Predict the 3D structure of the following.
Amino acid sequence: MRHTTLLAALILTASSGVAFADGDAKAGAAVFKKCSACHTATEAKNKVGPSLMGVIGRKVASVDGFKYSEAMKTFGADGKVWDETHLTAYLANPKGAIPKNKMAFPGLKKPEDILNVITFLKDPAAAK
């Protein structure tokens, strides 16, 4: 009996770990509402912040028509792209990841919120 309970717990943990590792676009869309006053993920339209449509894999500080801070331009000067690693660090602590950038948002504190927002940004249509 004890082995069966342990096995069931391991299977449940493993299956929830897989779901968590993939992220949830719908949950990410809900968290992204905190960002939507300044950004859009579904239109090539700049607001207070640049459009985040297609941000995954895009060069840092490269949206036409948006005036980036010198800090952001310097961060992206060597050709960096917004990948999961850079976005995770930036979304957790924008000022810590890129000191003196213009973004006033303090960051997302929950790792699952960051994962879900990144999943949403990869494919906003998946949140519908």
User: Anything to note?
Assistant: The first helix runs from residue 2 to 22.
